[in-house]
Amino acid sequence: MKARAPRLAAISLYPVKSTAAREVDRARMGRYGLAGDREWMVVDGDGSEVTARELPALLHITAGNRATGGPQGVDLRLDAPGVPGLELTGPGEGDRKVQLFGEPLIARPAGAHADAWLRRAIGRDDVSLVRCAAPEDRRVSFGSGLTGHAAFQDKSAVSLVSTASVAQVNEWVGAPQPLPANRFRANLLIDGVEPFAEDGWGAVRIGDAELRVAGPIPRCVMTTIDPVTLARGKEPIRTLARHRRWSGKTWFAVHLLVDRPGTIAVGDVVEFEPGSGAAPQTQRPV
Questions:
Q1: Which of 122, 182, 234, 265 registers the highest number of CB atoms within 10 A of its CB?
Q2: CATH number of the domain enclosing 158
Q3: pTM higher than 0.90, yes or no?
Q4: β-pairing, 158-162 with 249-260?
Q5: Structural domain boundaries enclosing 217
Q6: Rounded distance, CA 88 to CA 109, Å?
Q7: How does pLDDT run across 108-163, given as a tens digit for each residue?
Q8: 3-class SS at 3?
Q9: CA-CA distance, 30 to 208, in Å (whole number)?
């Protein structure tokens, strides 16, 4: 019997960096990533990024925009427990210098009304909301020599992981309640491949979009925060460090750069070609 072709199992957007995942059935893959993904970011009084790594309450904010099926004429809809929802029709006036992990960028402030809502929702009085002004000006580069552009993503425009890789990590962890795939906050979830097959991919085609694997993703403490309870733990970093550690970091999922924009949809066949710089093989338990 012919093997089933790999398919796109889920698409997740994060309109505001570090907020809750929003799954969609279809998305536009632009030159700078998925339309509507991580266009906005929370910053502190100095203009530096504020993420769920230090402020887990961000994970309880649900952000919606046109890409997630939001209301017409609304650029961003924000909802959080205990506060009325907020609808924005664009950023405020002027530009603001911000930093993303020390990298200087230009952003557009959302405005005082949005900042007041955000401060009330997460209980911190020095934060503001900004929108990426020019993703085309932000160049990201990788050890593989590949370069691209991105908005407020940590590194690459798009991230990908497979259901089999998530299942393998859960088998290693052995917890009574498996970690959901969204714990890893990848944009694309692929079904129908072997665990960690994505490590060795080069070119990837989904729908009429063409992408390229730029390398594996080093994982941080963000993955150890339960997005529902906000409790911190040791997994999956502890387990990944036993099985997927090299160059002093733990690795899981892959970075993608966009070669050709297009439209993708859940259920699309995923085609791939082997890459020339595959990641080291997964370590086996000792």
A1: 122
A2: 2.40.33.20
A3: yes
A4: antiparallel
A5: 7-32+139-274
A6: 12
A7: 999 999 999 999 999 999 999 999 999 999 999 998 789 999 999 999 999 999 99
A8: coil
A9: 11
